[in-house]
Amino acid sequence: MKRRDVVILGSTGSIGTQALDLVRANPDRFRVVGLTAGGSNPELFDTQVKEFAPAYSGLGEDASVEAAGMAADVVLNGITGAVGLRPTLAALDAGTTLALANKESLIMGGEAVTRRAKPGQIVPVDSEHSAIAQCLRSGEQREVRKLVLTASGGPFRGRTRDELTQVTVAEALNHPTWAMGPVITINSATLVNKGLEVIEAHLLFDVPFDDIEVTVHPTSVVHSMVEFVDGSTIAQASPPTMHIPIALGMAWPERVPHAAASVDWTKAHTWQFFPLDDDAFPAVRLAREAGARGRTAPAVYNAANEVAVQAFRDEQIGFVDILTVVEDTLTVHDVGSNAQPMEVDDVLAADTWARSEASRRVQALAAERETQH
Ligand SMILES: NC(=O)C1=CN([C@@H]2O[C@H](COP(=O)(O)OP(=O)(O)OC[C@H]3O[C@@H](n4cnc5c(N)ncnc54)[C@H](OP(=O)(O)O)[C@@H]3O)[C@@H](O)[C@H]2O)C=CC1
Ligand SMILES: CC(=O)[C@@H](O)[C@H](O)COP(=O)(O)O
Ligand SMILES: [Mn+2]
User: Domain 1-deoxy-D-xylulose 5-phosphate reductoisomerase N-terminal: where (predicted)?
Assistant: First the structure.
């Protein structure tokens, strides 16, 4: 494989540092030409810049947009949150392959993002979507009956809605199988991450929402599956590690030898799958509803969730309040008319509106909580 010039956005985060591990281990395959981060960990960023000596480095959203637009083979977007949208668009507009971990930009942007992408330009890095892309490599899209996304169930799997009212931030940050940044870890605990991933799968693979299922698989070894029309199911499995999807994202369609350890088939394993408890965890149902409404509804789902997650981390609201904020914000959102295609400006306006509406609801819930204590 010809060595690939890679831009890494969000280099100091969980995805970014693991991508740099892979670059370090495969200098013949990858060269870092751009690095950006948010600025909350300047020491680590400086160390990375010294080690990898990229042609471009910078902190913040504008620097990420600039880096995403530079000449490169691959842009890995490992930024967290809606702030990743402009860099995603910059990479697509530059015609560069986009290895996409920042699912939020695709989900909020919807067709305003997908119509800017050439076929195959977006390579999913999210483990479930990487798994599905791998399962689909040898198949025809018309042979697909359904996609099955696996969910770990998070740290609160098996709890009732009542039990969830008392959980703490520290407990929510204690993911059973993955070590990830704080926002996605909380999203895994609420199952919002899986809701986002259902919309992400719909956008990436053009499969109707009714044909995308979620199954709870507590050990996160099977990363997702595709069921075909003849009743056959192909699954992708490995011990939980992001090294495989990140390596595939940067080297697609090639596999990077020894990117990670494989399943040890000399040992006994039990793979379990359970139905999702939609009453305790309404996030996937709400995401399906937002996805079915379309247009700006997924952007509102994401923005309201980002506001609510921050408020939960700041201990302003409780854990179950996160989904209350998301649901109530979606209920009062008007997605507008389908007469015109949705543009990026519509998405940004919906994002801004949802943040303000969700913040208002957070304040109300926080005040209510205050009077109860
Ligand atoms: N971690 C994982 O295993 C997985 C992550 N993902 C997705 O990947 C993305 C990244 O997740 P993760 O790595 O866990 O998150 P982290 O919180 O660990 O890292 C986020 C990165 O984004 C950077 N960042 C924040 N704001 C900006 C900004 N304005 N401009 C540029 N960079 C910014 C941060 O920089 P700094 O902290 O230095 O300010 C940091 O480098 C998310 O969308 C997540 O959903 C998907 C599947 C798995
Ligand atoms: C590693 C990855 O892709 C995460 O998105 C992961 O799926 C989170 O785990 P949950 O299955 O708990 O959401
Ligand atoms: Mn995932």
Answer: 6-62
